[in-house]
Amino acid sequence: MNAEITQWDRFLASFFDLAVMQKYLPNIVDGFLLTCHLAILIVISGLALGLILAVIRAYEFWLTSWLIVVFADVMRALPPLVFILLLYFGLPGVGLNLSGYAATYVTLTLVLAAFSEEIFRAGILATPKGQWEAARSTGLGFGQSLAYVIMPQAIRMTVPPLTNRTIAIAKNTALGTVVGVGEILNQATTGQSFSGNASPLVLGALAYLILFIPVVIFGRWVETRFAWRRT
Amino acid sequence: MSDSPILDVQGLRKSYGKLEVLKGVDLAVRERELVFIIGPSGSGKSTLLRCCNRLEESNGGAVIFDGTDITAKSTNINAVRQKIGMVFQSFNLYPHMSAEGNVALALRKVLKRPKAEALERARAALDRVGLSDKAENYPNQLSGGQQQRVAIARALALEPKMVLFDEPTSALDPELVGSVLEVMRDLRTAGMTMLVVSHEMRFAREAADRVVFMDEGHIVEEGPPEQVFGDPQMPRTRDFVSRIDH
Amino acid sequence: MEFILQNFFNWDIVTQAWPLLLRGFGMTLILMAAVIPVGCIGGLTVALLGQSRFRAVRWMTIIYVDFFRAFPPLVLLIFIYAGLPFAGIDLPAIVSVCLAFLLNSSAYYGEVFRAGIESVGTGQAEAARSTGLSGFQTTTYVVLPQAIRNVLPDLVSNTLEVAKLTSLASVVALPELLYSADMARSVTFNATPIVMAAVLYLVLLWPLVRLLSRIEHGSMSSR
Lengths: 231, 246, 223
What we know:
The complex is a heterotrimer of chains A (231), B (246) and C (223).
Chain A: H1 2-15, H2 18-58, H3 62-77, H4 80-90, H5 100-126, H6 129-137, H7 142-171, H8 184-195, H9 199-226
Helix pairs in contact in A: 2-5, 2-7, 2-8, 2-9, 3-5, 4-5, 5-7, 6-7, 7-9, 8-9
Chain B: E1 7-16, E2 19-29, E3 34-38, H1 45-51, E4 60-65, E5 68-69, H2 77-83, E6 84-87, H3 99-109, H4 115-128, H5 144-156, E7 162-166, H6 174-189, E8 193-197, H7 201-207, E9 210-215, E10 218-223, H8 225-230, H9 235-243
Parallel strand pairs in B: 3-8, 3-9, 6-7, 7-8
Antiparallel strand pairs in B: 1-2, 1-4, 4-5, 9-10
Chain C: H1 2-8, H2 11-49, H3 55-70, H4 73-83, H5 93-119, H6 122-130, H7 135-150, H8 152-165, H9 177-188, H10 192-221
Helix pairs in contact in C: 2-5, 2-9, 2-10, 3-5, 4-5, 5-7, 5-8, 6-7, 8-10, 9-10
């Protein structure tokens, strides 16, 4: 009986030490804010770049299309951590110093752009041919048809797969910890090694849950709302 | 035909939440009989049929099939279902299996027949519905009428004592209906017991032993087709019969 | 140009680092061969539990799935690798990695299989049950084959993600491809080994990406 209580106390002391938690809470909050704004920046620029690439590709000019396909394939096939390390450790060799933050931002933006380009493209291809013909028959140009008729439908169709992909890539901001970005995971592991206690890790895990549980539930809602097969 | 019924539905009730679909239905089907259920949509015909092999759980009453109450929890329903074939409005063929694969699946997995024997019996069943040359085709390579005949073969292959038909021709183009009715006519000649929910009134007149008219969860009237169509006794039956084209 | 070659495609370093990277590549292959089936089987279990008759079981699977989808996989891995020792549970790196992958990818595979199972019409199960097949037989022979075919693009896509995720094992010092490359980099002070690792990942995974593009475009246009 006594032994059980001490076990339990040890467990509490290792994972839920309130004093330790209090001490590292400000750091975790800093990490939380950093994760948030890094994720938001990545989502905005990644989706914008993906949309631009998809529109360029819709013009079906062989050279640009080919380049975009190669870019999208490479960014989808490479593990993002490999690319982050490549930028972070490789670029200084050619005189370009990239911070860990910048390497993470650039990598995840490019990865999201690659995936979202493919999803937007699938949406454009899935819009019935009759829509193009109707738009062109009323005298709209190619670009106008794309902008006013095709893209609004394509984007609507792509919302669920895009939401899922975006959430997955936003979570990858945790990879920044490997190159010293002070986001949640980094703050949590630093706190853990300084305090010799697992409570900062628990705090970090809670921070991720607070941040991403609503996002995951939102993704679920989007999926039923738009009732469209995921890709 | 006067022996005790093979299927005996007694006081069957079924409701979905507050909506009462079957309000105490009694119906007996004797061996070798072809019984037709007609009635307006929402009258409970299909639900009654689906309670007969427990695809729907009833809320009261009993369904006695061949001496066993199939609504009892202790009944091994999978064993009973081998003996009651069912044909669906939308065919429900397995799209990932060929015609003979569709027919052979239950022979192999329920009756545990070896593969060769199962396929042989599957081909025999397909031959019975006139599709022996389509055994290796997949459902998407068959017309609606052919798909429905494969579905009938799937039910027949298990050598059931009775077959339930749930609007078997409603999803078919008019020119394909004939081939399915032809198979049902052959089955009747061979003495198969059948309970049919359908809107094929001409077929009912010609082939049914008995016609049952249902409305609002009750059986309103039943009798030989000449009587139900020609001289209906109840006002609601008269009303329904007068509105269908012959 | 010379400069770039020197830093990213240095032939001397390629020959030096090659054996180490090859061993790492082997470890990566072993890791993939372990975690992909583990995730698939876990996901299938989660999806089947999600179809349970009992509401409590269904809710628990939803909570399980959302919980582990909310955690970045690296956070899960570090929590298991660095956190569990505090509870007196000291797992070897490889076990930590497998456990983290089981929890993470069974949630994702579970969602894919669930969508697949729900895409098969109820008429299919009814037809199977009407011929006397049991619930288990119906699932095995009728529902799952169709479910898997209906979500094949999602399955391939998820498998690609799991394959890439194995690179996270480098963070807990498991000597797979990326870890070996980073070791070689820190010894040689040159990015060439990481480029080599990138090339090896591309060789392995690029065909999967191509396959995915093929089947995905097909699936969107035929709703």
